[in-house]
Task: structure prediction
Amino acid sequence: MYFNELDQLEEKEIMPGFYGKFLHMENMTIAYWRVMKGSVLPEHSHHHEQSTNVISGQLEMTIDGQTQVVDSSIPVTIPSHVPHSGKALSDCLVVDIFSPKRDEYR
Result:
């Protein structure tokens, strides 16, 4: 239970072009995403705090009206209830951390 193999986790397509594998703990969810170039994350918000970390590729993100291209050198923090969206400028590998956990990803 302490050590998890990513290749053993089920991958789910949550929306077109966004394929995720999820680890759920008592108070957080860690999401490992494979995002296809051109895939769009529509603007939304949620009560979860979120940290987004691009492992490879480039992701254009808009957070509360501010847009920036994000890569592995730019960790992103998104407070609760702040609107955000994104577009994959290339194929991307992304890790999101959510608190509290995302039960809808179970």
Summary: The chain has a mean pLDDT of 97.
